[in-house]
Amino acid sequence: MAFDLDSLNDRQREAVLATEGAVLVLAGAGSGKTRVITSRIAHLMRNRKVPPEQILAVTFTNKAANEMAQRVKVMAPGSGNGSAGRPLICTFHALGVRMLRRTIQHLGYRPNFVIYDDQDQLQLVRGLMEDGVFESDWMQPKDALFALQAARGQGLAAADLLRDEHEPDRRLGRLLAAYEDTLRRMNAVDFEDLLRLPLRLCREHPVPAREFLGQFRYLLVDEYQDTNHTQYDLVREIARPHGNVCVVGDDDQSIYRWRGAEPENIKKFERDFAGVHTVHLEQNYRSTDIILKAANQVITHNADRKPKRLWGRQGEGAPLEWLEADSERQELEAVVNHLRSLRLRRDAKLSDFAILYRSNHQSRGIEELLREEGIPYNLVGGTRFYDRREVKDALAYLKVIANPDDEVSLFRIVNFPRRGIGRTSQTKLADVAAHQGRPALQIMAEAGRYADFAGATGQSMQHFAELVTRYRRRFAEGPLGATFRELLAEVGFHRALEKEKTDAKSREKTVGLIYELEQATDHFGRTREEPSLKSYLEHIALFAMPQDTDERDKPLVTLMTVHGAKGLEFPYVYVIGMADEVFPNKRALDEGQEEEERRLAYVAITRARRALVFSMARARKRYGETLRQRPSRFLLEIDPALFAGPAPGAAGAAHPGHQEQKTKEARERFFENVRKLRETGQGGPG
DNA sequence: GACAGAAGAGTTTTT
DNA sequence: CTCTTCTGTC
């Protein structure tokens, strides 16, 4: 869309024109949020003549960043006062890496640092907990890592926890201290470090920090409700000198609390920044009135939210639909039949349809059925390419070569493919390294000197160390892709994988995976300006997305979780498995997260443009036993009159005779809810 | 070090 | 029930 202030609505224009000072844009679902952000950037450049390189827009996903950059390019081609620069549009983490690339040595790291992902982190925590300082029955490493992440995400340091009066917290503090020390020793950073270290730099080394951040005089933050504590502090640091900061978010779409997002940052923003100019975007350009009504009715049941109400001009549209069946199989068959007939009736493309669900495992049944029925689909989510064990193993070689101090990666591959360095030798190696305070790879290089590593094992260790050194040189000189291929061939990577897979199918798949990786590496080496090993690894850590080549143009039905659907829209949306304790999820309810689940339902509903269908099976098999299911509590919050035919809770399909009676009951329950809300001063659904 | 059988877990996920 | 991870044996 071209840049045109006149085509914006009043509120949108207000958000675009308020370029100076602190601006909070509360953007409801489908209210043209991205359009506002990109128009704002275009306006700054074209009308206010701000040099592009002074503009910084941060997002949470690369996808959002790319999309935004693309749209800015279209809106403001070659503008920016004749200068050739472009605004920086990237994720928080990419910004952090950019900053650390030039400054990390101030914080005691070397510039060849590597980035640890979740698996690396977990491996590290496992190692620390096995070292015996922590009782084995204390916590699962997974839970410990989670607790540790939560603490760090809140900006806490090990010292803060060590000071705590509760012993469990102090113990966590000891683990955190060990974790952070080890990371530093291995010259590795985790994702949270990509935010925390820049912040620390601002506080401890303001001169180099300003040198980098000082260039940005206009800051924009997308999906602001998803920021965590550290990100909030970082936003404050960046905006401090000029105060020109515009944050765009929606507290009703905050669905990432469980991983540290603090939607309270919206309130904090209003408190901490002077003279905040708040703009509400409530006009929805996406959905029909019935869909918006349903969304409003559900979300109004949340107590702690900024009051707002979506409205649209798309007309009333088709009523909601409710499919209820006896079994999961029948539920999904009903969905597929419905999809087929809707497609014919509306002459729609398969890519106009999305089937959403609460959790990933629910995709299995629908996938099976779609395959049987010959309906092509695109499953989004699941295990990502770069998370596959085989791919991670291959990349671990590169990580060790880039940074020989990375011992998590080192131990991952030290005996894969097999080279006779078994568990016992590895433990000894780790002990010697810890005892001497020297990197394990160095010990390996000198293995001959140690009685422990006499014979074949020592030889093998020296050989491995030599391989790493040799390839470090080769990667520095030779082409990335070819060198990588030679490396894998030399260590016998393919052979080892083939040996390990017994059936032909998985063998084929694995080999294909590694081939794909080699291709991708080669492509990077050929097309990048800086095709170094270091930048390749950085690229993988930061930008490697679920091999998402945007398949939305292809004729495929989209299958994904509601989380995955955030930010997207589809003409026709099915939300399957709408049973209570499935959606809302049982475990989330147990943890008191009903409101977050409701926001998730709100996100699901607001994805639909023209038609919205919910479905449920009355019985579900769980771990062998059969459970009876009731409709999701969220569906009972929707006025039954918005549904075509029987509404959820009416149980119409099973007992046609009682249908009218049950519908009446559902209606009464609905207005009962409305009354309750009025009494508590929340305002009722409309 | 390979393999079989037991035991345990079983939301959401980007960077 | 099903998939993953751990444990113990040869």
List the helices and strands and how they pair.
Elements: H1 10-17, E1 22-27, H2 33-46, E2 55-59, H3 62-75, E3 88-91, H4 92-103, E4 114-116, H5 118-130, H6 141-153, H7 158-162, H8 167-185, E5 188-190, H9 193-204, H10 206-213, E6 218-221, H11 229-239, E7 245-249, H12 265-272, E8 277-281, E9 283-284, H13 289-299, E10 311-312, E11 321-325, H14 328-346, E12 353-357, H15 363-373, E13 377-379, H16 389-402, H17 407-413, H18 423-436, H19 440-445, H20 456-477, H21 480-491, H22 493-500, H23 504-527, H24 533-543, E14 557-561, H25 562-565, E15 570-575, H26 586-590, H27 594-605, E16 608-617, E17 619-622, E18 625-628, H28 659-679
Parallel strand pairs: 1-7, 1-8, 2-3, 2-6, 4-5, 6-7, 9-10, 11-16, 12-14, 12-15, 13-14, 15-16
Antiparallel strand pairs: 17-18
Helix pairs in contact: 1-2, 2-3, 4-9, 5-6, 5-8, 9-10, 9-11, 13-27, 14-15, 16-17, 16-20, 21-23, 22-23
The protein binds a DNA duplex (15 and 10 nucleotides) through α4, α24, α25 and α26.
Short structural summary:
This protein has 686 residues and is of the alpha/beta class.
Walkthrough of the structure:
The C terminus is likely disordered. The two termini are 34 Å apart. Strand 2, helix 3 and strand 3 form a beta-alpha-beta unit. This protein is of the alpha/beta class and 686 residues long. It contains 28 helices and 18 strands. It is globular. The strands form 5 sheets. Strands 3-2-6-7-1-8 form a 6-stranded parallel sheet, sandwiched between helices. The protein has a 6-stranded parallel sheet with strand order 11-16-15-12-14-13. A two-stranded parallel ribbon has the order 4-5. Helix 2 crosses helix 3, helix 5 crosses helix 8 and helix 14 crosses helix 15. The structure holds a DNA duplex (15 and 10 nucleotides).
